[in-house]
Amino acid sequence: MADFINRRQITSVAQLNPIQAEQVVLCGTAYDDEDLPADRRLSSDPEDESVLNFCELWDVVADGSPVYEAWFYQSDSGSIFLAGTTEMVAQIIQCGLECMDQERELELGTAMVRAGLLPSGDSEFERFRRAAGETHLA
User: Fold this and answer.
1) What digits encode the pLDDT tens for the residues 34-60?
2) Nearest of 48, 43, 52 to residue 14 by alpha carbon
3) What is the pTM of this model?
4) Long-range contact list for 13-22, CB < 8 A, 24+ apart?
5) CB atoms within 10 A of CB 42
6) What's 76's DSSP letter?
């Protein structure tokens, strides 16, 4: 069972290791198709439309070990990477989880429900909520 832990507000590249800085670049590219450096994506310039606002980073762990790094930004978007890599395995689009791997989607979706990160109005919320409840009973 995966859990979202260690939420951090990210406002500067100085808070990141080199892999996380590259993850920010990939998050931005996934969001608007522009390949811009991490320091530009995390700029404090309120006029810069390429900034990823409301940026936060979560660790996602299973059995105490990091499995994913999850980025949330722009209030309704996000990208999830295998921990310590730049391999994007899922995205958050308009608050909903998008993942090609069904097992991974279920793992992340139930963890998002438990962490309060998936809105109850999402079309998959009930499925993930039921799976999260079943997981707690196991």
Assistant:
1) 999 999 999 999 899 999 999 999 999
2) 43
3) 0.93
4) 13/38, 13/39, 13/42, 19/84, 19/85, 19/86, 20/57, 20/69, 22/86
5) 22
6) T
The secondary structure of 4-51 as a DSSP string is EEEEEE---GGGS-HHHHHHHHHHHHHHHS----HHHHT---TT-TT-
Helix (H) or strand (E) holding 88: strand 88-93
Integer angstrom CA distances of residue 96 from 9, 18, 63: 21, 28, 25
CA dist 41 and 54 (Å) reads 11
pLDDT digits 0-9 by tens, 64-98: 999 999 999 999 999 999 999 999 999 999 999 99
Grade residue 125 by pLDDT with cuts at 50, 70 and 90.
Answer: very high
Amino acid 137: pLDDT: 40
Instruction: Tell me the residue type at 133.
Output: G
CA distances from 64 to 3, 4, 68, 113 (A): 9, 11, 12, 19
d(C-alpha 10, C-alpha 3), whole Å: 20
